[in-house]
Structures are given as structure tokens and as C-alpha cells.
Amino acid sequence: MNETRRRRRGNAVFWAGALLIAAFVAIAVIGPMVFSSSANGIDPLNARKSPSLSNSFGTDGFGRDILARVITATRLTLLLTFGASIISFAAGTFIGVVVRLLGPRLQGAILQVNAVAVAFPALILALVVAAILGPGSTSAMVAVGIAGIPMYIRLTSTLAAQVVNEDFVRIAELQRVPRVVVAIRHVLPNVAIPLSVAAANSTAFTLVELSSLSFLGLGVQAPEYDYGRLLNEGLAEMSSQPWGVFGPSIGMVALGLGILLFGDGLAAMVDPKMSAPQGAITRFIEKVKSGTRTSTRSTAEPEPAVAVENLSIGTISEAGDRHTLVNGVSLHIAPQEILGIVGESGSGKSLTAMSIAGLAPNGLWRTASGMRIRETDMLNRPAPSVLARTVSLIYQDPMSTFSPSLRLESQLGDVFREHMGWDRDRIHRELLEALTSLSTPNPERVLSQFPHQLSGGLLQRCLIAQALLLDPELLIADEPTTALDVSVQADVLRKIYRFRAESGASILLISHDLGVVEELCDRVLVMYRGEFVEELTPAQIRTRNVQHPYTQRLLDATLYLEAAREGGDR
């Protein structure tokens, strides 16, 4: 009930502000055509008249109707206010997004300079810029617009900082999409709503700043006039004609109130607070193994398809101190081999995998003696077309992997269109077949929808379909079945398992489920505090033949959960 009332109140406030703004726009369009003569015509005989029915706010020292001048000034006031707001919004938003896509050093330098600019009141900055540009309506608009840029840079960069770390942005970077395209297509649409709310509210302050410049003589110059200049003229004649300040003051207050109501209502309207069992999976894997699996190891050790040597990853503080998160790990994956990595949350599993793919989060350092996937050196930035065929990823959280502003088919098809030369018809056909093979209900409808319209399970199947369709040399699967129902997990794992045999790809599987890892993987690496502490075979896991205490604790935890599950079933 309270939520409904808040929503209705938000709508009422929004429409009240919108109606006020619409009224001022109508006055700005019609007013100068109707009241121009009485606003600008000099009539000394009627100078400084008191308010009357024919002159609601009286006349000024030249006999001009003050109300008519306020109405006429509305057009220039609105044009300057909206013009300055557009300058601030466009420049600040663009810089704020782009700066988050730059390297950490350049990003930090720009944000530090912007922090200094934000420390100064916008009106002070506007006064400085206006003094440099000289008096005039255009220079005042530009000055106020420039003064508002730092605020938008700070707001946009803060919002964009969350978006640029989302998986769908990392995928775009993996595909080597130009940074400007990433900013426009992936980042900006996802920060547009809060920015729009902020823009609506800050426009009211832009109105005050412009009027202040005109009031101080640095803005609009005669014979032009806006609310600020009319207020200046009225104040000069305050002793003989006190009514002269009321007209422009009421206009400023009413217009500012309309803008603020519109912004608050918009904020209220977009506020989101108002707005098969495990055994089945094991049995299916055993069935596949007993039927179609062939050994991936020969008597002679095969040349690894994936080789990572001495990989270290960490953070660096502002003082230059390094903190290591992943410490000198090495791994090798043979052709057609499935290597599993297990460990607790925060042990470094996903960070290691993302670094192999070249997608470590911003702000981290990475060193390695070597990092190769087949013939591709991952320490050097491979060409986009090569990278697209080298590595594919299945992310753990499908909801953060897709941009919420684009339809699924558009996002899934980007890599095929850009780097494989597929046309739209082939992309559509191949995606439909891939989704159908993963038991996706109504795949045609799925492709035409936005991510927020689908469940996590359907989005995960879309991710898996794209990753398998790319036919990579290395498939990185980070908890690939987390968002899926148990009954669907078996089908998906079967598809991934058979993909290895059919394509010859290597697979790096990250999982917390020792049961799945034991049955699916050829080898298993146990990760603890950023290091591989033990390498196991599936047989060692089954017989609990482990050496490291941490591995033993993982097995004990798994047995405890299985016992609890069986007790609950009974």
C-alpha cells in the first residue's frame, strides 16, 4: 500500500513539474510575439507606474511593462539554461565514461584533476571562465556549461566504474571492440537513467548560475535581457519602483520549482524500490564416460595446448606497495583435456582464469614467464580475429554478462559478425541450432528479448551456446551450471563434455562441486590463497588419497553436505 502511494506521489510530482516546464516553454514560444512591443517600447509618460490591472508589476524607468519584459525574457532564459545544461551533460558524461576505459595511471591523473575542479563551487568557475571569455549571452552559456562539466565527470565516472567491471564489458574488450564504441554502446545506456535524473535536478542550478552572471553584469548584455538582467535592473530602481524585482524573481522561482519537481518525480518513478539431484549428474557422466570417451593421454606426454608459467597477479597501493593475490602459479592443459580448478571463494580461481584470457580487472598488475594457447601468445595482445577463435568464456553470473540495453541476438552475434564474417541470417540460424541443442524452450523468442526479460538459466544457456559455437581452442567455464536447474545441468555438462571430443578443444573448468569435477575432469588443481597446493586425479578424489590439509577439508565439507542432503531426503 505504501509503495503504491509513493509511486502515485512520484507520478504526481513528475507531471506537476512537466506541466510547469511545458507552460514556460509555451510562454517562451508565444510570449515574444505577443508582448514584444509593450516589453521593448519606450514610453516616458508612463515611467515607473505602480501595478494596475493593465500593468500587473508596473512599469520601469522607461515606461516598459515589467510583466511583458519577464514574459519576453523567458525565451532567452530557457535557451541559455538548456544550452548550458547540454554542454555540461554531453561533455561531462562522455569524459566520465571514457576515463573509466583508460589505463589506471592516466585515469587516476584525470580524476585527481577533476577532484580539484569539483572542490570549487560551479559559480566561481563560471565567473572565472566568463571573465576570460568576456560578457555576453553566449559566453555566459559556455562558461556555465564548462563549470558544470566536473560534476558530471565525477558522477558519470562513479557510475561507469561499476559498469566497466561487468562481464559484458569484458566480453567487448575480449573482442577488441574500440573503446569509444564500448562507451557508447555498452556503458552509456547503463548509466543513462541516474544521469538523466541528475541532469534534471542540476538544470535548476544552471538557471541560478546564469541569472547570477547576468545580475553581476557578466552575462546577457543590453539590449538583450533574461531573468538575471531584469533582476539587476529592478534592484537598481528598488527605492522608486520596488515592484520591479518581483516579476523576474517569481519567474526564476517558478521555473526552478518546475525543473526540481520534474527531477524529483523522475527519480521517484525510476527508483527500483517503487518500480535433477546431484546423483543424476554423476550417473549421466559415468554413462558418457563408459560409452564414448577415449583416452586423452598417450604413452608419451603430449605437447600442451595451454601453457601458463609462473603467473602472478596483484594490486598496487597509492604508495606503490604490492599485494599479491595469485602467486607464481603454472598450469598445462593437453589437447582434449579437461582441467579442473577447485577452491573456496576468494582463492583466486576466477582471477587466474580471467588473466589467462586477458580479462583481469582494471587496477591489477600481472606478470608471467609465459602464457600460450596453442600458437597464440597471450602475453602479447593477439589480433581480435585470432583471439575470437582462441578462447571462449562461460561466466558464472549470466545476469551481469549481458548488457541490459541490447537484445540478446545482437549481443550474441557481435563476435561472429565482427571477427568471423557471418551475415545476419547465418548468425540467426546457428544461434537457433545451438540453443535448441541445449534444450532451450522457444529459442526464437529468447533471441528477440532483452536480458531482464529472461531467467538466469536461459541466459546461461545463451552464454554456453555462444561459447561452444565459437569453436575455441580453450574453453574457460567458470561455474557454468550455477544458474541452471539440476535437470538441465546434466544436459549442459553432457554438451560441454562432448564438445571437447568433437572439437579437440581444451577445457578449464572452475567449480566448487567436487562431485562434478571428479567425474568430468582428467586432472584437478586445488587452489588455496592464490597458489596451487595440490594436483589430483579423479581416482585420488574418489579414494580420498590426498596430501594437503586444505584438500582434506574440502573433501570433508563435501561429505558433510552430501550427508546432510541425504538426511533431508529421508
UniProtKB/TrEMBL annotation:
Q: Name one GO molecular function term.
A: ATP hydrolysis activity
GO biological process annotations for this chain's record?
transmembrane transport
Question: Which residues belong to any copy of the ABC transporter domain?
Answer: 311-554
Which InterPro entries has this protein been placed in?
Answer: AAA+_ATPase (IPR003593), ABC_Ni/Peptide_Import (IPR050388), ABC_transporter-like_ATP-bd (IPR003439), MetI-like (IPR000515), MetI-like_sf (IPR035906), P-loop_NTPase (IPR027417)
Q: Does the keyword Nucleotide-binding apply?
A: yes
Q: Does the keyword Transmembrane apply?
A: yes
Where does the record place the ABC transmembrane type-1 domain?
74-263
Alphabetical UniProt keywords: ATP-binding, Cell inner membrane, Cell membrane, Membrane, Nucleotide-binding, Translocase, Transmembrane, Transmembrane helix, Transport
**GO-annotated cellular components:** plasma membrane
Q: Which residues cross the membrane?
A: 12-35, 78-102, 109-133, 243-263
Subcellular location, in the record's words? Cell membrane; Membrane
The record's annotation in Pfam families points to:
ABC_tran, BPD_transp_1
Query: What is the protein's given name?
Result: Oligopeptide transport ATP-binding protein OppD (TC 3.A.1.5.1)
Q: What is the organism of origin for this protein?
A: Brevibacterium yomogidense
Lineage here is: Bacteria, Bacillati, Actinomycetota, Actinomycetes, Micrococcales
